[in-house]
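Example 3.2
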Amino acid sequence: MNPSSQPDDPLIIAGKSYRSRLLTGTGKFTDFEQTRLATEAAGAQIVTVALRRSNLGQNPGEPNLLDILPPDRYTILPNTAGCYTTADAVRTCQLARELLDGHKLVKLEVLGDPKTLFPDVLQTVEAAEILVRDGFDVMVYTSDDPILARRLEQIGCVAVMPLAAPIGSGLGIQNRWNLLEIIENAKVPILVDAGVGTASDAAIAMELGCDGVLMNTAIASARNPVLMASAMRKAIEAGREAFLAGRIPRRRNANASSPIDGLFF
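Structure, written as tokens:
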């Protein structure tokens, strides 16, 4: 995506404008209060929710996540975490639409391996086609394959979310060249999803030109999740500003800040 000339340019997904480019998850926190505090510290406006693991009203009488993250304040992004087939992913999105009064924005992920949690790209494409035809706005988790990213955009996904490294690994960005290829040829937002471990990883993703970053484990599993959420917020903002500012070229030799050319001796 082409950068805006303004450092406070909004992130636009499915026609809606967002101030924050940090999207956060709601799993792995110790309790709802920690979830609330970390989400606020991150400054997130979009929060992703695993429908199979969280109660959004489908379990009456149990604590409801929407009580601490109300939809009038946050964009709730139901996801299909834990789905290993096209049918399960589509069914989960349809249930989310029912629970959230016609809500169309979903995060699609169809997993292919329980150890690495890598996506099953064939079933991901199939599910994306079905959901787009059914009127969903699909943000899609995928591998960092530029050809696949282009195909998912052509299908009509509103955002493509390549992994930086395996989910929850904290390894950081492992293939920045593939990410650059995806970013430079995309006409929809590209958000890194999975693999971020610390603030510098998030900053690098933004410096490369990503439109945003989605993370959960890096915040929720930190020793101090609320403090880490704050660090991630600052890293996202700094990385975006650095991308918009335009870094200096890398050189093998020195280039003095105060050159001596033209000085009188």
